[in-house]
Structure formats: structure tokens, C-alpha cells
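Sequence in, structure out. First:
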Amino acid sequence: MLHHPHPIIADEPITALDVTIQGQLLHAVQQLCRSHDTALSRISHGLSVATGRAERACIPYTRRTVEQGGVGAVTHRPRHPDDAPDDAQGGSP
């Protein structure tokens, strides 16, 4: 935050951390960004972690955006089959 970046892009910033620490770190970074009026874009394979504190989500597939919008719309009403939970696809529990 030293040079007041706009925006910050965090690519898999918490992947190797414990779930509890992940939440604490995401909360701290989000608060820091808010206090400095800086946008934060998180890139993650963990949709539940990524959307837990997000307002919008963008889902890429084969180098193109297949879904984007408010987190609720993207996570609760997925339009692309790969975005549906495993149990909705008949996958393993």
C-alpha cells in the first residue's frame, strides 16, 4: 500500500493456508484496500473462498468468460455446467 496501487491483483494469494487463516487474511486485505480506496481482484480456483467476500465474480473457461455478475447469481444459478456443484452433476460426493 506504500505506493497506493489501483488495483491490486492477487493470484491465488491464500491457497496454501489453513482455512481459518485464509478468512482472517482476506478480511485484513479487504479492510486495507477499503481504507486506501484500492480495488482488489482475486484470482482463485476455490470459488467458495473467492466469493465469500466478493461483490462480483467472473468465471473463465477455455480462455473466455462464460459467466460474470453478482456473486449470488453466479454461485446460486450457474449457467455453465462446470460451475454447478459436483452433486448436481452426478459427480462424486
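Second:
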Amino acid sequence: MRAPALCTVLPSSALLAKQSATAAPRRGAVLVALYEEGTRPENALEFVKASLGAPTAAEAAAREAEARVLREQLTAAHAELEGLRAKLAGLGVFVQPAES
């Protein structure tokens, strides 16, 4: 009877190069890439994040700013909608509120 394997074989950097840029890396592939990196990155966590496709700090800040603007626009649109509903109610027109 064979003894169970104590470790798994991870893909080599040549195999990683063949993978599609949009394909999710296989488990452990990022760690192999980190190990095989010629020069050690200053921050291993940032290297792993970048390898997995996480947004950079600048991209995350831009997305937060965009989300903030969109929330403000949504709030303004809701206020305008309520104002228009009030006008219609003043004219005697019943408007059923939309479900949230």
C-alpha cells in the first residue's frame, strides 16, 4: 500500500505563462509565482493581490469616489421623485409607489 502524498505538485512558471490572463489562477499557482519571482517584491501580500486581479489602491479609491457620486445622484433622484409625487397628489392624481 502506498503512503499518501504529503504535498501537492504545483504548476511551474511555464505553465502559468500559458494560462489565459482572465482565467482564475489555480490554487497555489500564485505562491509558486511568488517563489519563482527573480526579485522579491517588497510586499508579498500586494504581489498576491495583484496576481489574483485585485484592484490597486488607486483603482479602489476611484471606485469609492464613483460609488459616492452615484449614491448622491440616487438620493437626488429619489428627492425629485417624491417632489413629483407630491405635485401629482396635489392635482388629485393617485400614483402607486414603486416597490423598493
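Remark: Residues 56-95 form one domain.
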